[in-house]
Amino acid sequence: MMDSPQPQFTGATRYVLDEELAGIVNISMALEMPLLLKGEPGTGKTMLAHAIAESLSMPLIVLNVKSSMKLVDALYQYDTLTRLNDSRFGDSSRDVSNIQDYIKMGKIGQAFRAERRTVLLIDEIDKADTDFQDDMLDVLDQMEFDIIEIDKTTQAKQRPVIIITSNAKKDLSDPFLGRCNFHHIAFPDPKMMRNIIRVHFPKIDSKLLDISITTFYRLREVDAIEKKPATRELINWIRALKADPDFRPKNLTKGEIPFLGVLFKKSQDYERAAKTVNRRRVF
User: Fold this and answer.
1) Among candidate residues 184, 199, 221, the one where a domain is terminated
2) Which terminus of the chain is more exposed, N or C, with fewer CB under 10 A?
């Protein structure tokens, strides 16, 4: 499988990519290994999967991991309730004796059965327990799983490009880490952030760009903030500033910082930021 030419990921229209990240994405595809991405929320982990799918013209399938999720739910579901209703009322075109008609693929199952190679995003794996994590990688290693109800093994038609994200809220097991490639996406520095903002606002005024980014990074340094504003919040904040007909970039240099609620979503964070801004007068 590795003898055929591998597609190369070089970025997407709205995703600013650094050379190191591009390299680990491409080597993970070449080695057919899952890529585990860690980093604080808002660093672009999830958006990377969207960018890979866009760049390589692949369908994207997203598995949002929940703390209560069982692995079988990500593989397939057996719809016993519908089968029972069909059996009782007899008004369905399905054959109730054929259990196959009541098997629905989960997100991993969909990626395995897709006719085209897909990008499979397994988002926030750290929410799941260790057994889920390790058993899932067994399935992804073998590229197959059993459907017990019909005594059938489902094999992948194409090996998906597998991106796994973690917010590092819980440690992952050593066996899990050993079977993935790993990359930590650091929060963008101001220079990288300027590039990102210019992608989203190609015609942005240079004064607004400079002062909004400077103010944003200072706000991220406010003491005891639980959820620091991320790139998404900065983009939305700039959008809000541009939409306000009374706003002038020089207002920020005077400590007049509007729309703090766009940047800070937790009440305590908002209050701390507002107090800091008011206390300093000029931020």
Assistant:
1) 184
2) N
Q: What is the pTM of this model?
A: 0.85
Write the burial class of residue 227 (CB in 10 Å: 0-12 exposed, 13-18 middle, 19+ buried): middle
Q: Which domain holds residue 128?
A: 19-184
Residue 203 and residue 169 in one domain? no
The CA–CA distances, whole Å, from 135 to 157, 182, 217 equal: 20, 19, 41
Q: How far apart are CA 186 and CA 249, in angstroms?
A: 28
Q: What is the pLDDT of residues 25-39, one digit of tens each?
A: 999 999 999 999 998
* 225 alpha carbon, distance to own chain's centre: 23
Domain CATH code at residue 155: 3.40.50.300
The four Cα atoms 138, 9, 18, 264 give a dihedral, to 10 degrees, of -70
> Is there a single domain that holds both residue 156 and residue 67?
yes
Residue 282 predicted with pLDDT over 50:
no
Residue 27: φ, ψ to 5°: -70, -35
Cα separation values, 213 from 60, 66, 78, 138, 232, Å: 32, 34, 51, 44, 13
pLDDT at 82: 85
Domain end position, chosen among 156, 184, 212: 184
Q: Considering its fold, how many domains does the chain have in total?
A: 2
How far CA 247 is from CA of 97, 108, 209, 239, 259, in Å, comes to 67, 48, 14, 12, 11
Per-residue model confidence as pLDDT tens digits over 222-257 = 999 999 999 999 999 999 999 999 999 988 888 889
